[in-house]
Design goal:
Elements: E1 9-15, E2 21-26, E3 32-37
Antiparallel strand pairs: 1-2, 2-3
The chain binds zinc ion.
């Protein structure tokens, strides 16, 4: 059993119900990951 270093290939993007950006990545070995990004539009809160 050799050591395998995952290669994260981009499978595309999706948007969650919370409005977060979801990045889908997977390796050719079958492993997959979901990375969420907090999308901050940077709207300043005026008082
Ligand atoms: Zn892999």
């Amino acid at each position: 059993m050799s050591v395998h270093v995952h290669v994260r290939l981009n499978d595309g993007y999706a948007v969650t119900e919370d409005g977060q950006l979801l990045e889908l990545t997977s390796c050719h070995c079958g492993a997959s990951w979901e990375t969420t990004y907090q999308v901050d539009e940077g709207e300043p809160e005026s008082i």
